[in-house]
UniProtKB/TrEMBL annotation:
Gene3D superfamilies: Glycoside hydrolase/deacetylase. One of its GO terms (biological process) is carbohydrate metabolic process. The lineage of its organism: Eukaryota, Fungi, Fungi incertae sedis, Mucoromycota, Glomeromycotina. Keywords: Signal. Residues 437-454 have a biased composition (Low complexity). This is Chitin deacetylase.
Length: 485
């Protein structure tokens, strides 16, 4: 969470000096666009998908938030979304990479029900997340925030500290994409599939060993300042508000000229508010001023031609069916119809305009040192690595036949009545092969009517191999120096 940025450029240079071959050219050479074809396979490219000419290509922007979802962090995220809209009049969209520890599940439900994306960012935000961290997060989000497993399709490594094993795990879990790698300028491509391995961060030497057909990589394009220094996450921490706003605008324009490759603003909301009673660090900018600057930038960005802030899943869906910019206002996946269901079902969608969740819908789960709210019933103990979905509670999990915005976890009822809102979760079962999965997926809780108390899910860690032993020590040192966020 704490950011100590040492400069990607200098690190890349250092590794080059240490003899690490930059091998992304190999992937580019190996990926033949006449063989690797959409919608299943995408070569890394700065050219718009589908052969769209630049003037017909939308400028997509990814606004992402990382770590636990709490009242203060969600307030920051929601203030950045604000009343800002995409060209079709719908609110701009964002993706939250959620870590479970310190998260209030009811806020995740509300974030998702408002049309945003929820992605996996582990249970406890460790340096080396293995199966139990990745799988446990997905299970807990499904059980206590009511997000269908099929909609938790993305992953970001804590500290951006991925290993080849990380991709093995998320591919096994049927994930749609990773977004943990770094891009500077030349490798700031459109998302691509890993049919020929990674194209980014190749100085780490894993580009030839990270081959996962169909798994998307959404590279995190850094903000490059006027001296050529990259700033990846929370760029506002690296300069005064006026200076950083200039960086953001000039980088946005660079993307617009470089094949309209997606522009990214990657933030930790925890850096954008001041905890009452804690003094500012010497020389630090008041977080409120940084937040105001980012809001000004967003106001400027949404006023640029054909600019859309979308979730990661929306971006990938568009890439698989690249509709020209002038037809996007009626493009169904970007629409924002709010369900009309006549009553509140605890997901934050309001029935009476008071902006509050009606009394009695939320349950408050108090585990002494940990307190959170949920619509899905308090379990007998706080979710943990050993048991991410403890039993208990008398509410009903979201079934595989209903999406969160239609699911009433108290009445045990899916309020979707027609084909337009029908949803079937076809995702792979979540968990380690052979374990007793009872959460979501195609072998999960398919019947509305199974209260949480019937669940018996638990997982066993398979983390018996320390793959850090397999990595040259100078690379480990570099990783720890660079990605302390
Ligand atoms: Zn994080």
């Amino acid at each position: 969470m704490v950011k100590k940025f040492f400069g990607i450029f200098s690190l890349t240079l250092a590794c080059t000096l240490l003899g690490v071959v930059n091998r992304f050219e190999n992937v580019e050479a190996a990926c033949d666009p006449t063989v690797c074809q959409p919608p299943k396979c995408f070569c890394p490219s700065v050219n718009p998908p589908g052969g769209l000419p630049l003037e017909k290509t939308p400028q997509f922007c990814l606004l992402t938030f990382d770590d636990s979802v709490q009242p203060d962090t969600l307030k920051v995220a929601n203030s950045l979304i604000g009343k800002r809209t995409n060209p079709n009049g719908c609110p701009i969209r964002a993706t939250y990479y959620v870590s479970i520890q310190y998260t209030d599940f009811s806020l995740v439900t509300q974030w998702y029900a408002a049309g945003n994306e929820v992605a996996d960012h582990t249970m406890t935000h460790p340096q080396d997340p293995f199966d139990d961290e990745i799988i446990g997060c997905k299970k807990a989000l499904n059980a206590f925030a009511g997000i269908p497993n099929g909609k938790i399709a993305g992953w970001r490594s804590p500290f951006l500290n991925w290993q080849p094993k990380t991709f093995d795990i998320i591919a096994q879990q049927g994930s749609l994409y990773d977004s943990s790698t770094t891009a500077l300028i030349d490798d700031a491509t459109w998302p691509y599939t890993m049919d020929y391995g990674l194209y980014n961060d190749c100085w780490r030497g894993f580009c030839n060993t990270t081959i996962h057909p169909g798994l998307f990589e959404i590279p995190m394009a850094a903000i490059i300042d006027d001296k050529g220094t990259p700033h990846l996450m929370d760029p506002h921490l690296d300069g005064t508000p006026d200076v950083v706003k200039g960086w953001l605008q000039s980088n946005f324009q660079r993307h617009a000229q470089q094949g309209k490759t997606p522009f990214g603003l990657f933030l930790h909301p925890a850096h954008l508010y001041q905890v009452p009673g804690t003094p500012l660090a010497p020389g630090a900018t008041d977080p409120a001023l940084n937040l105001a600057m980012l809001e000004e930038f967003l106001d400027w960005a949404i006023a640029q031609p054909d600019t859309w802030f979308v979730t990661s899943q929306q971006l990938l869906e568009w890439m698989q069916n690249p509709v020209p910019a002038d037809q996007l206002k009626t493009y169904a996946p970007f629409s924002c119809e709010v369900p009309k269901i006549g009553k509140e079902i605890c997901n934050g969608l309001d029935d009476n305009g008071n902006g509050q969740i009606d009394e009695g819908l939320l349950e408050n789960c108090n585990f002494n040192t940990v307190v959170w709210n949920t619509c899905y019933g308090c379990p007998s103990e706080n979710p943990s690595l050993a048991n991410p979905v403890p039993s208990g509670g008398d509410r009903y999990h979201v079934p595989t036949t209903c999406d969160t915005v239609w699911w009433d976890p108290i009445a045990n009822q899916c309020l979707c009545q027609d084909a337009n809102c029908a949803y079937t979760d076809l995702s792979k079962p979540v968990g380690i092969v052979g374990e007793n999965n009872t959460v979501g997926g195609s072998n999960g809780n398919t019947n509305p009517g199974q209260p949480n108390g019937n669940k018996t899910s638990s997982i066993t860690s398979l983390n018996t191999v320390n793959t850090m032993n397999l990595i040259p020590s100078f690379i480990i040192a570099s990783i720890f120096m660079q990605w302390i966020f």
